[in-house]
């Protein structure tokens, strides 16, 4: 966590959701975070990896929401440092709305 915090610091960052299958055919969802830079390629950091029974929009949104909530303190620190905490809050609200609407159907 300290490595991620020190690398990202005052910079903007990106979050990647990667869906894949492992060697045994399990559906895996990974969440990565990295520092944005127009001058160099930066290395993403794996925040979480989880096997999902189904990989679709709903399960992926739920995974991202749950994972971001687990790591909210790290993300709040980073977001606060670059002034986009409100943006992250809006994204979490959007994901919650998508999951709620999907469950209502």
Task: Give the key terms.
105 residues; alpha+beta; 4 helices; 25% strand
Indicate the proportion of strand residues. Answer: 15-25%
User: How many helical elements?
Assistant: 4
Amino-to-carboxy terminus distance: 39 Å
Q: Identify the overall geometry.
A: globular
Largest sheet: 3 strands, antiparallel
Major sheet strand order: 1-2-3
Total number of β-strand segments? 3
Q: Unreliable segments (pLDDT under 50, ≥5 consecutive)?
A: none
Question: How many discrete domains?
Answer: 1
Q: What is the radius of gyration computed over CA atoms, rounded to a whole number of angstroms? A: 15 Å
Helix content: 40-55%
Order of helices and strands: HEEEHHH
Given helix and strand content, the structural type is: alpha+beta
The chain-level mean pLDDT equals 78
What is the structure about, briefly put?
This protein has helices at 2-8, 57-70, 72-82, 85-104; strands spanning 13-21, 27-35, 45-52. It is α+β, with helices and mostly antiparallel strands.
What do these coordinates show?
The chain has 105 residues and is of the alpha+beta class. It has one domain (2-104). Helices cover 50% and strands 25% of the residues. The protein has helices spanning 2-8, 57-70, 72-82, 85-104, and strands at 13-21, 27-35, 45-52. A three-stranded antiparallel beta sheet has the order 1-2-3. α2 (57-70) packs across α4. It is globular. The N and C termini lie far apart (39 Å).
């Amino acid at each position: 966590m300290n490595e991620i915090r020190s690398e990202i610091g005052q910079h903007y960052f990106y979050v990647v959701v990667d869906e894949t299958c492992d060697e045994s055919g399990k559906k895996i969802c990974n969440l990565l975070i990295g520092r944005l830079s127009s001058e160099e390629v930066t290395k993403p950091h794996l925040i979480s990896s989880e096997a999902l029974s189904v990989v679709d929009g709903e399960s992926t949104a739920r995974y991202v929401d749950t994972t971001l909530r687990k790591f909210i303190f790290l993300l709040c620190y980073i977001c606060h440092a670059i002034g986009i905490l409100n943006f992250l809050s809006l994204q979490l609200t959007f994901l919650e709305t998508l999951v709620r609407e999907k469950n209502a159907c």
